[in-house]
Design goal:
The structure is a single chain. The protein is mostly helical. The protein folds into three domains: 194 residues, no CATH class; 48 residues, no CATH class; 106 residues, no CATH class. It is 64% helix and 0% strand. The radius of gyration is 23 Å and the shape is globular.
Amino acid sequence: MSLGAVTARSLSYYWDMDLIALAAPFFLLAIIVELIVDRVRGSGLFRANDAINSLSLGVLNVTSNYFTRFIQFLAWGFVLQNFALVDMPLSWFDASPRGIALWVAAAVGWDLCYYWFHRFSHEISILWAAHAVHHQSEDYNLSTALRQTSSGFLFGWIFYLPLFVIGFPLEILVTVNAINLIYQFWVHTQTIRRMGVLDYILVTPSNHRVHHAQNERYIDKNYGGMLILWDRLFGTFEDERDDEPVVFGVRKPLANWNPFWANLQVYDYLLFDARKTRKWRDKLGIWFRRTGWRPADVEAQFPKTSQQRDQLQKFDARPMPGIGPYVLAQFVLAIAVTLGIARIFADAGVAGAWTPVLMLWAQLWTIGLLNEGREYAVRAEIVRLLLVVPLGTALLPYAKWPAVVAYIGLSITYLAYINYSKQLDTESI
């Protein structure tokens, strides 16, 4: 079988058997349940703007995967076809003792590779530039789990190549990858404290809270995906302490709700330093050096200052009064559109998905602007409604124009109403 055929077959299997997509409704249900529990307890673990930003990044990750996923599949298929040490047919992975043992070996092997990928993603600048997205939230709840990068496809696939050299079928590894990611969802919570003996074996909420901390004691610890045993084995384990509460987030705060800037922030920092340094060795090396390293000449000219953690204030912009219900309604619609795009992609492939994806991305961008309370946010949203939506809709053969016109009309009417209310409030002061 040719490389192209192997890649196509594997991609088809991935999209047809996408366990993460199947789990998505349960993710959203779990987030709603945790939100209700949070409100009942009055814990204050959820902020609407932060949660929407995290979920927007999840949507951006899912939709960008339609156009980037083939890169890693092509690489994996090439290695499997040309360098596999053992030919493992799919028939070996059945319910027999041998089959179960192979499934376990694949899952454990994937988790080990994930540990090293995750660890290097914190230790090497260019990898951290992608992974930082997942850590930018200053809250910690189940919505944080869906906060994923859109540039991880660039290098992440490299760390799993040993499994393909061994000869594990691509379809099997795709499945255990999905199981690994689904498992990691539930550990992003503060509602579960300790879990006894499981804290010593598995990645649990307590163990993973440590990983998301910026405290000096906790930083760069607990990299495991499913098994915390790797951290205990390789010396990167740290236990959560009651006398040192976790401070979530990154040391250079994102300080906005723009999902696109969230993906570009660290790349921008690295590019700035690479441009400013005089040494060509440093211009290249900065991307592959230890996270946080800066050329001496750049550090001297543009020193970075960090705020004391006990003085940190969570970013919380003040949007226009009354915009909250509108933003929530638009985001719910964005989720529905995301589900619709999945169906479009299944039927029409990449060519059919481009237009609705770009429309969705424009919507995520303006949602971020509205949540931030930018002066031009309402104008940008109106431009989207009057230009992007009609233009995009015109390119979609299944578009229902009466519904589109009603959507645009109701949206602009509400924006005009809250803008008028704001003017009245200003005049009355």
